[in-house]
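Example A, followed by Example B.
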Amino acid sequence: MTGLEIPTRNLMKAKMDAGQLAVGMIVRLMRNVEIAAIAKSAGFDCLYIDLEHCSFSLETVSQISMTAVALGVTPLVRVPGLDKAEISRTLEAGAQGIIVPHLETQAQAEDVVDAAKFQPKGNRSLLGANPHTLFRAGPAAETMEKMNEAALVVGMIESVRAVENAEEIASVDGMDMLLIGTNDLCN
């Protein structure tokens, strides 16, 4: 198959790249796919599914993510931490972006991008047929390039050390956005 089309374009990333405002809602309590329809009906661009502070399973994340994409809502998932395997598995499950808490250094940001992106930007392993391609296989190089374009990588600044290193963290190629974790930062 040539000319693989990635039908699950990251609409939030496209909106932000165009300089437009994108808004999202956090998901911590509701575990059903209906949350994606609620977000769509309320006019949100993304869902922020929280795995750091909630006990969602990866299966739940996958189901919500695939439903959200089908409805035109970008599913972002805050992973529990800096674990490369969790980052990769979360993206493989259908998330269109990851939010990584407690990012404090440029080296950590580089590791996050390495886990979230395929060659040449990172070292993520490719699962051929996946939710992002609607389970169709295509040429690996083309699939990886398009999935790299669609994946949104977000780091959370939540400590004094992270604030001091924010400019260096933001400079990492492939780090798309930084969020301020006000609760942890205030503590």
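Example B, a separate protein, is given below in the same form.
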Amino acid sequence: MDAATVGARLAAGAVAPLVRKLLVREGPGAGLADRPVRLSGRLSFRGEKRTLGEKELEKLADELVARAVEPLPAAERLPAHEERATAHALARTLYALGDLDMDDVQAVELGERELARRLRAAAGEPTRDLAGGAAVLHDALLEAACRQLLHFFTQRSTFIPRTLVEQTRRLAALEASLSPAAGRARALAARSAEDAAFERRYADYVARKHSRLTIYGLDLAHSREWRLDTAFLSLEASRDDGAGEQPVPVRTDRILTGRTRVLLRGAAGSGKTTLVQWLAVTAVRSPDAEDVPHPELTGRVPFVLPLRAFAATGGLPTPDRFLEAVRCPLAGAQPPGWADRVLADGRGLLLVDGVDEIPEREREETRRRLDDLLGAFPDNLWLVTSRPSAVRDEWLASQGFGELSLTPMDRDDVAAFVTRWHTAAGADPEMARSLLTALRTKQDLGRLATNPLMCGLLCALHRERRGFLPQSRRDLYEAALSMLLERRDVERGMHRDGDLRLAKEPQITLLQKLAYWMVRNDRAQMDRADALAVLGDALPMMAYLEAGPEEVLRYLLERSGLLREPVAGRVDFVHRTFQDYLAAKALVEARDFPWLVDNADRTELEDVVRMAVAHARPDERARIITGVLGDVLGEGTAVRRVLLALACLEQATELDPTVREQVRSLAGELLPPRDPRTARALADFGGPLVLELLPGPEGLPDEVAEAVVVTATRIGTDAALPLLTRYRSHPSLGVRRQLAWSWHRFDRETYAEEILAHLDEEDLYFSARSTDDLRALRALGGRSRIQYRCFSLKPARLIDNIDAGTLTHLWIRADTYSPDFSWLEVFPRLRVLVTRLRSVEKLPPGIELRSEP
């Protein structure tokens, strides 16, 4: 049933006489004898002047429904019991008129739709128990009744005098506000103007500072910076609800939609800092700019707070020092108390980046400071980022933070990134196609392309080496260092006669010293004086360098592309990944294995341990891995140590078979995983090595079988397909749902043929993220239940790519879409529509609307 059709056929003449019965008759005047008369005093079925009882109100609602449906063809009429239910709900809603605390002037100011909405709320949403068509009829009749009520109010003789009186009172109140305290008012206005002027300057600064980001090796001949609006790729984060359910995916550009506080976990290079930049820039865009689809951000004042910058200054600063602490050049110009006023008004967007980049002993103090800020300024938006294991589960849960984890880039994400990278670099599109082919056909290479940092390095190396790419993480970093430290300045012609010139190896040696000092001292930054001291100790061993520490440090800052001075007097690496890689190399050369093993439980050293195994000789690898295992008979850290040792095996190209078997045996004791959280940990740490250890499905409980599938699908390589094919006939809905949801991580056609085509369809929604997915499902003969996930719903894509003869249930998960669903009439067998919308427009008859769980 179409609300617009009902409204068009329901003539005002049919409604007006009935609605008029709801009101009492009164004499002329402005209604000022005592005070404004509330709506309850105007009604004929409430208050002292009742002429209608509740039974008469029910009869009036019955008559309204009858007059509405009488012109409709029999095929469009509701069943008789639904018409009666509609009339009963309408009577309840109209009865709530007497519960609204307003008079007729205020009601007219609301308008018919808002008045109808308030009535539904006051009546307890009586349409929630109605079928879709009955709810549409109820709302159409309610709006028609409200329209007539407001019309009657404006026709009353008291309305215009009452309106004039209200206007007079409001003008008097305005004059009162500009009275003898005008001096204070003008001072407040002047200060507000000062705040507004400063915020415009600050917005311009944020847009300039954060609108570009560095992509390593983007172009050897030109700038290595990339425009943020081109570089930003909205990835997926998921919430682990701990209940064994499929993680709920969230696109990162919507991470604060419907959320006010989020702790985001992600591995190094996964895009956390890029997301922080994007959120800050989006917040300062003009509300009048075209295409601003993020109302939760528009008009917010962003404060980007990289925790690594505060490690040496006592931690997270107070609001009055936010700008000063990040060396914002406008800090001295901010009006006194400005930051406090912004946060007190709830207009702030606080982006706290890199909990993992402060020493572990300082993280609890940081949490306490966050708690203090949240208590003082509760109404702002917050995003806090960290590496996955740097803080415990639910670290900020008591402060109301929800936790999300960035998921590895899937094939579509990688394809989009590679295409954008080559476009930004002005590279031959054929190079992009060649790289994508290599990533899809070579499993070892494809496993490296899991996040934006690694994808960017692969793109740069593939272009420079004309298609030749390393196959391991260690080789990838070495090739990237070679490109950045050796070829970049040569090909750009940066060297001049007489300039200091360092070859790749001396640069790596010196950078290793700095990285090693930072890791050893649990620092993400170091004082310039400490950097000079470290270089001063190293240079006497490099007699061929005729330069002092100051000149060498300046060279590394200006030429290496790896080291930077974010603020005066502080030095750090452009990305923590390079710091960990270089520190691991230095640690192995120094044979500092006891310290590494003793500190293996420190979560921020996970990558250092893995890279140390990659750099070490076979006997040293065995020493590190056996040391990491330690006493694995206990609880707590023992499981994590086994997983870390398992992750090290992937970096150990040559290793004592006894040690390898010991790790595999201990890892086997953790299998099969018993819950989704353990399943994801196994996939993230163990990778493909876990696949051959996973059992089943014979003899496994349903929840364990589901956890096994979570592990295999999260690993996401074609090597997982043989295992997954053993589960494709599993009867558990949880197992089948995980299989149906995960195909975006694999080759679309292969997965559809090997897995999807064999799944039992009962109660199972098949997830589609693109028109290619829809076409693949149609090629399988169509599916009766489809979940379509997209940013903005375009009905034509579904109409053109879904088999209309098979679809019975459609679940739409979109960020933006029109409530007009008249286009669903092309699916004759469709019976259920699931959306996040509570009500829709023009839903074809026979389709039940369900809310998204």
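On Example B: The chain has a mean pLDDT of 80.
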